[in-house]
Task: structure prediction
Amino acid sequence: MVNQIKRENFSGKLGIIAAAAGSAIGLGNIWKFPYITGVYGGSAFILVYLFCIALIGIPVMLSEFIVGRNAQKNAVGSFKKIAPGTPWFFTGFIGVIAAYVILSFYGIVAGWTLQYVFLAITNQFSGLTPDQIGGNFGAFISKPGLPIFWQVIFMAVTASVVIGGVKKGIERFSKILMPILLVIIIILVFRSVTLKGASKGLEFLLKPDFSKLTVPAILSALGHAFFSLSLGMGTMITYGSYIKKDENLGQTAIQVTIADTLIALLAGFAIFPAVFAFGIEPSAGPGLVFVTLPNVFNQMPFGAFFALLFFVLLAVAALTSSISILECVVAYTDEELGWDRKKSTVVVALTITILGAILSQGNGILSSLKIPFLIGGKFEMMNIFDWFITLSDQMLPVGGLLIALFVGWGMKQQMVKDEVTSNGKFSFRLYPIFNVLVKVVAPAAIALVFLSSIFGWFK
Ligand code: PFF
Result:
């Protein structure tokens, strides 16, 4: 039986922004954005990223909001309602599966942040050499039990917020957690840019060096735009369905995007000036925040305190994102399969946790188990943890591509305009540009990125 209970809404503008920005701002901003910026050489990469956000990110986010709010349903149900009897619902289906997969490893990495909060509280970085810090990180993630212990705690907190529902759970917690996140990151930026020798880091972020701008850098910028804005898997369709009919969707999409981008940039300003000030290599890759930064904090006055602030920041950012990912799946099982919210949340969170716990063994006891993945034009052998991360990296652009095509070609354009203008209440002067972007530009760019990353074109 389909659940007939009246749908909940976000109470107002602030609630929407807090929840949607909470979804967008996550490990992607504070962990991934700084390290790929480091790997691809700094500010030129940032410029390309901003370009992708503006031209593709905002239109796709607005598309997701349009679909969700119009249909007032979950990611799959929305397509079924707007385009009944067509295969479009498959788009939402890919999204729900992507959400499931992403949360399985997102919960593991979020668990790492809790372990690092613990290490910071108990002051366990101090006195260690850089090699020891690196070794400890490797040893920790390859342990069979400890990462799961933290993952279970993290997933339990996530589930308890989602069980509370849209207003009392998601909105309430986002409104508390997002300001905390902003305050912490501003303190960290202030500390970092006032360190002696910080100016080299500022230069790295502000002075573009286009010689470093390779095609893989551009591809990675677009891929990251999707991940960072939580696009391509129906999260923003689901959140869009909780936005009241008289809210301005276009403005909301722009504000959420600005908030997300601002926090990613602030994370860069919190990290790189400090990294350069202490003469540490900026291109450390995924270990940047778990290995490089503890080294940086070790050399800083009151470093233990700043380490604690930083890892709390990371955990908070991860929490508001994982809430949205879980909600995307729960809204589906609740409305389409007719389970109630409590049963949905418990079953979904539990099975995701089990999947994640198995995947995390890919970093340890199952590390010799390798599965091939077609990427970069060849089959690369990966452990199960990396395999699933790579899978989701590919799924989001596919989802985003289909959503853009749906809004551009699959929906009646009058319906699109009425939704964005709230039936004439707001203006939508940029409609002609939006229309070209979702019909042609975004699908073409995404398809190019997707195919070239799979088949390894333009290396
Ligand atoms: N945007 C989140 C981040 O930057 O960490 C991750 C994410 C959340 C991706 C929700 C996708 C999603 F639907």
In short: Residues 23-24, 26-29, 102, 227-228, 230, 233, 235, 321, 324-325 surround 4-fluoro-L-phenylalanine (CB under 6 Å).
